[in-house]
Amino acid sequence: MSLGITLVSHVPEIANGLPKLLDQVAGDVSITTAGGTDDGRIGTSMEKIMNAFSENGADEILAFYDLGSAKMNLEMAIEMSDKKVHLYDTAFIEGAYTAASLIQAGVGLDEIETQLKPLTIKN
Amino acid sequence: MSLGITLVSHVPEIANGLPKLLDQVAGDVSITTAGGTDDGRIGTSMEKIMNAFSENGADEILAFYDLGSAKMNLEMAIEMSDKKVHLYDTAFIEGAYTAASLIQAGVGLDEIETQLKPLTIKN
Amino acid sequence: MALTVDTLTSWMNDFAGKIEANAQYLSDLDTPIGDGDHGFNMKRGMTAVQEKLQTKPTDLQNGFKTIAMALISTVGGASGPLYGTAFLEMAKKTSSTDDLGELLDAALKGIEMRGGAKPGDKTMVDVWNALVPEVKNGTLTQEKIDAAVEASKDMIAKKGRASYLGERSKGHIDPGSQSSGYLFQSLLETEGLL
Amino acid sequence: MALTVDTLTSWMNDFAGKIEANAQYLSDLDTPIGDGDHGFNMKRGMTAVQEKLQTKPTDLQNGFKTIAMALISTVGGASGPLYGTAFLEMAKKTSSTDDLGELLDAALKGIEMRGGAKPGDKTMVDVWNALVPEVKNGTLTQEKIDAAVEASKDMIAKKGRASYLGERSKGHIDPGSQSSGYLFQSLLETEGLL
Ligand SMILES: Nc1ncnc2c1ncn2[C@@H]1O[C@H](COP(=O)(O)OP(=O)(O)O)[C@@H](O)[C@H]1O
Ligand SMILES: Nc1ncnc2c1ncn2[C@@H]1O[C@H](COP(=O)(O)OP(=O)(O)O)[C@@H](O)[C@H]1O
Ligand SMILES: [Mg+2]
Ligand SMILES: [Mg+2]
Ligand SMILES: [Mg+2]
Ligand SMILES: [Mg+2]
């Protein structure tokens, strides 16, 4: 069973840029993104998030977000999606980088979550 | 005495995109960035960081970075710069967003640092 | 107190009018303690709702779903999933009742579930929490609405963007509380609803 | 064991040659526990160093400064500020000594200060920490260099990108330890240095 990553940011540039950092250490991990609103403003979009889930090549997804309202759209998208998605309240970039490195190294979900725990900063 | 923000990211797009998130809540705060290496690759550049310091309109700078090697270039730039720069090991985006909101609200450095403390996740 | 497709539509049109008229004010409220977009967000959302409702919904459930989807897909900010969830929960609840008070109760639970805010956290939850019981008791008045919105002013934000300001969020009306105030005001002003 | 502008230049040219020849290998070492660029980073840096050194430095301090600045401004990754600081500290130290062992001692302190890594953290610090005393004792050998580099293999990374992998960083040679190994190997191979 494969693990992938979905990144949700309020800013399209951040959503587009972060995979470049992760690809360096996790070239084989499927990483999909949802950045900005449907019309490209600062914000998030449940539809874009659902697309990011379905475009992701992995069976199970680890999802990371920047600010709180992104989390709400993420949760709605998770409720409406068939895929198994795990949502993390970690530092956005640092959590995603950690997860990407560990998935690439073949580490399992349990161990990944143990390593993500100290990066949890949102509620 | 005014406070500004400098953002250092390995990825040019992230360095360019993050100010859009911060400007929404901190339109009056001077925010300067250094993203990528001198030749636009993924990485950081001490020279770009020094430029970000000197371009910043504030007297005192709060600096945030994404990954550890950015911190080393930041510290070298700080040693070589005349400006007073405070470096934070917080979650990158979340720390910068918190600082920007508080600077805009006129909060002083001490109180800002108290609020940044729980976001510290690097060493 | 039984809602119909027609009274739901009137309610929404009235609410859309208030949002439109007060969009700048709502965004101004969002400026010192947020990102200054709440009025524009809600205006975009309610304009989409009004357009969708020009085609009469087949039933109440459909009406609520249409409203929810329009808000979810156009608002962009936190208020999108929050109001969206409120209307989605009301849609679900129409399977068992068309009583306005019970529907609003379900909406409030939805907002709390979606955002994780509790009363006192300086969010729209405070206004809903104060006013839903008044609707159920038949005691909703403009004074009570104004008081509920005003009460957000002295609170310290624990959720949403304003929470980043901590103590500094005090002294400002919460924009989402104000827009929710308009939603309840529209209930008062819409014929045959209360 | 006194360094001169000429022996420094020979040392750097020899090191640049090794980096050039092993760039792909160093990047391959960086792939399982990093971002796969260490060899390319170092090659870019040492090519810049070689170019700068084509103009003969006026004195030892200037030579070290030139090397440091070239590395700092072209490498891009963590190894840039680390090697850069090493050479910068050696530049400073030339004010009081031209003894290779003492200069290397200052370099090691600089690397530790810059990166905050301690011996055992699976970084280049381990190789410097093991080999600087050998230089000072006049006991540096290829075997000792190989052993110091190889020792990084079983360590668990506590600093740098490899530290994100925790336990999984075990079993791989640290790329920065390997490139530092080449730096010491160049000391062995450069006439008149040890
Ligand atoms: N977690 C939450 N729970 C309940 N209400 C919230 C929450 N977060 C924000 N809100 C409400 O949303 C309003 C802000 O909406 P809006 O400005 O449209 O979104 P954003 O903050 O994303 O720009 C706030 O005034 C508050 O009433
Ligand atoms: N904090 C640190 N202290 C000492 N050495 C470090 C530190 N971080 C990284 N290194 C060294 O740098 C090497 C990686 O260099 P390089 O690949 O060029 O940089 P990056 O990791 O930024 O891509 C590691 O193998 C390690 O030896
Ligand atoms: Mg807002
Ligand atoms: Mg917004
Ligand atoms: Mg590397
Ligand atoms: Mg790199």
Automatic annotation (TrEMBL), chains A, B:
Gene3D superfamilies assigned to the protein according to its UniProt record, in alphabetical order: Phosphotransferase system, mannose-type IIA component
A GO biological process held by the record: phosphoenolpyruvate-dependent sugar phosphotransferase system
Root EC class: transferase
Catalytic activity from the UniProt record: dihydroxyacetone + phosphoenolpyruvate = dihydroxyacetone phosphate + pyruvate
EC numbers on record: 2.7.1.121
Pfam family, one: EIIA-man
The PTS EIIA type-4 domain, residue ranges: 2-123
InterPro entries linked: DhaM, DhaM_N, PTS_EIIA_man-typ, PTS_EIIA_man-typ_sf
GO CC term (a single one): membrane
Alphabetically ordered keywords of this record: Transferase
An example Gene Ontology molecular-function term: phosphoenolpyruvate-glycerone phosphotransferase activity
Entry annotated with the keyword Transit peptide: no
Signal sequence residues: none
Its biological purpose: Component of the dihydroxyacetone kinase complex, which is responsible for the phosphoenolpyruvate (PEP)-dependent phosphorylation of dihydroxyacetone. DhaM serves as the phosphoryl donor. Is phosphorylated by phosphoenolpyruvate in an EI- and HPr-dependent reaction, and a phosphorelay system on histidine residues finally leads to phosphoryl transfer to DhaL and dihydroxyacetone.
Binding partners and assembly: Homodimer. The dihydroxyacetone kinase complex is composed of a homodimer of DhaM, a homodimer of DhaK and the subunit DhaL.
Designated name of the protein: phosphoenolpyruvate--glycerone phosphotransferase
Organism expressing this protein natively: Lactobacillus kalixensis DSM 16043
Lineage of origin: Bacteria, Bacillati, Bacillota, Bacilli, Lactobacillales
Automatic annotation (TrEMBL), chains C, D:
Pfam families on file: Dak2
UniProt keyword annotation of Kinase present: yes
Superkingdom assignment: Bacteria
Alphabetized GO MF terms: glycerone kinase activity; phosphoenolpyruvate-glycerone phosphotransferase activity
Membrane-spanning intervals of the chain: none
Annotated EC: 2.7.1.121
InterPro entries: DhaK_L_YcgS, DhaL_dom, DhaL_dom_sf, Dihydroxyacetone_Kinase
Residues of the DhaL domain: 6-189
PANTHER family assigned: TRIOKINASE/FMN CYCLASE (PTHR28629), TRIOKINASE_FMN CYCLASE (PTHR28629:SF4)
Listed name of the protein: phosphoenolpyruvate--glycerone phosphotransferase
Organism: Lactobacillus kalixensis DSM 16043
